[in-house]
Write a structure and sequence with these properties.
The protein has one domain: Nucleoside phosphorylase domain (Rossmann fold, 3-Layer(aba) Sandwich). β9 (143-149), α5 and β10 (170-172) form a beta-alpha-beta unit. It is built from 7 helices and 11 strands. It is an alpha/beta fold and 238 residues long. Bound molecules: S-adenosyl-L-homocysteine. S-adenosyl-L-homocysteine (SAH) binds at residues 8-9, 57-58, 60, 85-88, 153, 171-174, 196-197, 199, 205, 209.
């Protein structure tokens, strides 16, 4: 089995890469910016693909996530893609800082395309998640929520309106782009998201995100260790 993580930020992937001691395969995706790490864990091939950097900062957002996911699936042919990273969430849904969620759906919240239902449906995305996501969440005692993706860290009133109307819970900048590519290439996708900020908490998002990034990424590493244990059969479901 080959499992491939797609991760936007170095800070999100680093604790996990160090935990498993997986090594970079230098230049694998050149000249694209994404970067490959590879290792073996309990008989499973573990890949981590980072979106990469431009001008010294991590390439967050849908475009880089699309390039990374497409390249990863075409070159590595993984059995499962895992999009792991940080997100905003809502206090009103019971979320707290550094809570880890498994995605039970995925949508875009900032594509406002007028037209008929077909355009509206395509704009929202609503791609399928891996059918084993719920069993995994239950076995590991993790909460589930719907990933909602846009191109900005802040949240405008029209974003909130879209999120509320379609049940979005975990606000990120890559999830639906990764899901889109997985849907095209018939590759199952699991979402593992850790909360850095509360969209309805009243704090300034970037300040709150920066303050909680380390804590959220540590929680993400712990959850991903459980995910790996589950996928390699070390956690038995009774
Ligand atoms: N300049 C910042 C950029 C981080 S962008 C930096 O490099 O530190 C935020 C990243 O975290 C994105 O990859 C996104 O997926 C995720 N994220 C965390 N909280 C978010 C929120 N409230 N809204 C959207 N994305 C969020």
């Amino acid at each position: 089995m080959r499992v491939c993580y797609v991760v936007a930020m170095v800070a999100e992937a680093k604790p996990f890469i160090e935990r498993y001691g997986i090594k970079e395969v230098e230049g694998f995706f050149a000249p694209l910016p994404c970067r490959l790490y590879e290792g073996e864990v309990k008989g499973m091939t573990l890949n981590v693909v980072l979106n990469g950097q431009q001008n010294g900062s991590d390439l967050v957002g849908c475009e880089a996530a699309t390039v990374a996911t497409l390249s990863a699936i075409q070159r590595l042919k993984p059995d499962l893609i895992i999009n792991s990273g940080t997100c905003g969430a809502f206090r009103a849904n019971g979320a707290g800082i550094a809570d880890v969620f498994i995605g039970n759906g995925v949508m875009f919240h900032d594509r406002r395309v007028p037209g008929d239902d077909a355009w509206g449906t395509q704009s929202l995305g609503n791609y399928a998640v891996w059918e084993g996501s719920q069993a995994l969440a239950e076995a590991l005692g993790l909460k589930m929520g719907k990933v909602t993706t846009g191109s900005s860290l802040d949240m405008q009133p029209c974003d909130l309106d879209m999120i509320q109307r379609h049940g979005g819970e975990l606000k990120d900048m890559e999830g639906a782009a990764v899901g889109f590519v997985c849907s095209l290439l018939h590759t199952p996708i699991l979402y593992v998201k850790s909360v850095t900020d509360l969209c309805d908490g009243g704090a300034e998002t970037f300040e709150e995100f920066s303050r909680n990034l380390g804590k959220a990424c540590e929680a993400l590493k712990v959850a991903n260790e459980q995910v790996i244990d589950y996928l390699t059969g070390q956690i038995r479901v009774v």
